[in-house]
Amino acid sequence: MASVAVGLWVGVGGRYEPAEISGVAHFIEHMLFKGTVRRTAREISEAVEGVGGYLNAFTTEEHTCFHARAHASRFNELLDVLADMFLNSRFSPADISKERDVIKEEIAMYRDQPHQLVHDLLHETLWPDHPLGRPLTGTEKTLDNIRRSDVLDFFHINYAAPNTLLVAAGPLRHGEVLRRFKKFAGKFGAGKPLAFVPAGSEQIAPFVRLHTKHIEQTQLALGVRACSRHDERRFALRVLNAIVGESMSSRLFQILREDKGLAYSVYSSWAFMEDTGALTISAGLDHGDLEKSLRIVVRELRSLAETPVSNGELRRARDFIIGQMELSLEGTENQMNWLGESLLAYGKIMTPAEAKDRVAAVTAAAVRGAAREFFVPSRLNLALVSPLEKSGRLGELLSW
Question: Which of 72, 273, 26 is nearest to 169 (CA)?
Answer without folding.
Answer: 72
